[in-house]
Design brief:
- By secondary structure, the chain is mainly β.
- It has two domains: 141 residues, no CATH class; 145 residues, Immunoglobulin-like (Sandwich).
- Strands 14, 17, 18, 19, 22 and 23 form a six-stranded antiparallel beta sheet that branches.
- The radius of gyration is 30 Å and the shape is elongated.
- It starts with a helix and ends with a strand.
Length: 338
């Protein structure tokens, strides 16, 4: 072959490779065209092997996310401000980070098991909870969650496994999925328990009386994450008063025997611990156009002597959004024989 012919052949081959690259032919191998990287969607040709791999959740995917307020669906929250989403895969106990945020591309390998993990976090200073239960029930390809420290920073996050197997293959571009996230607005001004007045004339016979406590909010479309309930009496003799039952929103009536009793030198405490973190807490929600009352009726058994007067305090503990620090609201009343 003459030198000029070699030169022209090299030019033709180079031009063909360039056109193929610009056309997105090599995108399936991890080299998307520049126009596609800027947001275009070129025609990506998949072989039969590629299609079989995609059925197993193996290949390159285009991933999107959208997050709304659970109690105000029309309000879409802002990515990287109100919340952050991280895209991971997981092999054994190893978490493999891929991308952060919306409109990204991730590549799954055979070792990933066809599962893409989405980690949802609330940035510092943002007054929101991750509504992990609604996320599981509202995403077709998500059926569970983990509360785990995926990035090894000492803080646990909610992580959701997204089934990438058998995702539809489009005519152009890569297979795409959209993760739907939900977060709850934290009630920073939670008004809590409504006061119960002092009680007299209980008498000396053994009797069970009920007190109409209830929780309320200062702001609609908000929530608090309840993690513990405590009933305390400033008396050391349980024969005077016993906790019979307490209606806890989200749980119903709990018998006094379900509470842990602690005796101190000055009081008796009945404690029911639901959880110590965001996972498993009771997310008390106040939607718009709903009654702002969540009954917490308290039932106590009294056997008082003449002139007995006992102070009873009920406390609801809840978790501050994002920090998971504990806060509480409480009320007390005094009860006497006469």
């Amino acid at each position: 072959m003459k030198p000029n012919e070699k030169k022209w052949l090299a030019i033709i081959i180079g031009a063909a490779l360039l056109l193929a690259y610009l056309g997105g032919v090599f995108a399936q191998y991890g080299y998307p065209a520049p126009t596609w990287q800027m947001g275009g969607q070129p025609d990506v040709k998949f072989t039969d092997v590629d299609k079989e791999n995609y059925k197993k959740g193996i290949g390159r995917f285009h991933v999107y996310e959208t997050v709304v307020d659970s109690l105000d669906i029309a309000t879409e929250r802002t990515t990287a401000t109100n919340y952050k989403i991280y895209w991971y895969t997981r092999q054994g106990t190893q978490w493999i980070y891929h991308e952060t945020g919306d409109d990204k591309y991730v590549t799954l390998t055979p070792g990933d098991g066809g599962v893409l993990w989405i980690v949802v976090t609330i940035p510092s200073g943002q007054a929101f909870y991750v509504d992990y239960q609604k996320i599981v029930t509202n995403n077709q390809y998500v059926n569970s969650y983990l509360y785990i420290d995926a990035d090894a920073d000492g803080v646990k996050e909610f992580a959701f496994p997204y089934d990438m197997k058998n995702q539809p293959i489009p005519n152009s571009g890569y297979p795409a999925i959209t993760f739907m996230g939900f977060i709850l607005t934290y009630e920073a001004s939670f008004t809590g328990l409504v006061d119960v007045a002092n009680v007299t004339s209980i008498g000396t016979a053994t009797v069970t009386k009920f007190y109409d406590y209830y929780l309320s909010f200062a702001t609609a479309k908000s929530a608090v994450a309840i993690y513990k309930i405590e009933v305390l009496m400033n008396w050391t003799d349980e024969t005077k008063m016993r906790l019979k039952k307490l209606n806890v929103p989200g749980l119903g009536y709990l018998d006094g025997s379900e509470f842990t009793k602690t005796f101190t030198a000055s009081d008796i405490r009945y404690t029911y611990t639901i959880t110590n973190n965001f996972d498993g807490a009771i997310y008390l929600k106040y939607p718009s156009n709903a009654q702002n009352r969540f009954d917490m009726t308290l039932g106590l058994e009294w056997t008082l002597a003449t002139d007995d007067f006992i102070r009873v305090q009920t406390t609801v503990y809840y978790l501050v959004a994002q920090t998971e620090a504990g806060a509480s609201t409480s009320d007390y009343f005094q009860a006497g024989e006469a």
